[in-house]
Amino acid sequence: MPEKIDFSKVSFLIVDENPLSGKLIHDILSMLGATAVRTATSVERARKLLRRDPVDVIITEYHLQPENGLALIDWIRNAPDSADRMIPIIMLTANSEEDYVIRARDMGVSEFLAKPFNVEGLYRRLVAVIARPRAFVNADGYFGPDRRRRQVSFGGPERRDDER
Amino acid sequence: MARRAQIIPPRADLKKKAVNLTTGFDLRLTPETIRKLEEVVHRSRDAFTTDIADRLMVMRRLVAETGPLPADQKALVAHVYGSSLEIKGGGGTIGYDLLTLIGKSLNDFVSGLSRLDERQVKVVCLHIDALYVVLANRITGRGGVVESAIIEAFGEAKRKFRADGDDREDIGDARDA
Lengths: 164, 177
Fold this sequence. Notes:
- The structure holds two protein chains of two kinds.
- Chain A has helices at residues 19-31, 43-52, 69-78, 98-107, 119-131, and strands at residues 4-5, 11-15, 36-40, 57-60, 89-93, 111-114, 136-139, 142-145.
- Chain A is α/β, with parallel strands linked by helices.
- Chain A has one domain: Response regulator (Rossmann fold).
- In chain A, strand 4, helix 3 (69-78) and strand 5 form a beta-alpha-beta unit.
- In chain A, helix 2 runs parallel beside helix 3 (69-78).
- The longest helix of chain A is centred in the first third of the chain and has 13 residues, at 19-31.
- The termini of chain A are far apart.
- Chain B has a single domain, classed as Four Helix Bundle (Hemerythrin (Met), subunit A) (Up-down Bundle), CATH 1.20.120.
- In chain B, 64% of the residues lie in helices and 4% in strands.
- The chains are: A alpha/beta, B mainly alpha.
- At the A-B interface, strand 1, helix 1, helix 4, helix 5 and strand 7 of A face strand 1, helix 1, strand 2, strand 3 and helix 2 of B.
- Strand 7 (136-139) of chain A pairs antiparallel with strand 1 (6-8) of chain B.
């Protein structure tokens, strides 16, 4: 029997300064059965909501003002007063050029989806963060999901002391 | 000396409470569910096109009215940057791929600028006119040969009129924020 996701068990926070975009994502999640969906139009508002009541998944824009989406990720992943450092974060944004993707990834985003988007793309990201969570890495200057997507086996001899 | 990276195993709590074998949606979407989700997007189409039309009207007014003061020019470029980004992101989502292409072209054009000179204003106005035409004629998809030629021409305009623009203070670009 195939696995299913019961979205009524998952709470969401959408952060987008365009109310129409926020509503569209809200409507898609509602159609999937989600009932606990909140929206914020700024990073500051998102912080307030998360401090009061943490959620399971965050979907955020990059282009927010006055602070952008990276500031929200930075707060969640690194701030001492973060609501939950390991909350899955999906960045859904029209700032989709490579350097934005790299910045978001290096700040600790879980999944990235470019606008314009289609429903299948969004659904795949939801499945990824809910049903296939990734390990986290805590290293110098980085706290977030493991950025290595593929495990490529190394064919040569191991040279590090602890790998021999 | 750099400390070793600590690997924290994936957290299972969300999966445990939401993933099951009986209730909800399959991990792989069925065609029926995709159709229902696309209907949700389709229902938002009118609201998006109205929003884009409003943005175009405001952009056109601001471009016409904004004076040469640096602060006003900064605000103008920031506004055009933000609106073009919304059009880039929203157009294709509701089936207007050409809006996305022209919105992206406009967004690329103003990205990194802090003011618009006379020729750049003209290029911005041409983008706004083109976006209006796409909306007014309800041109969904990517259009045809003429539309491709227009996008190409906008790319050429960027190469021609933005060659000296990138060394200015980054305003119309969220990357520095």
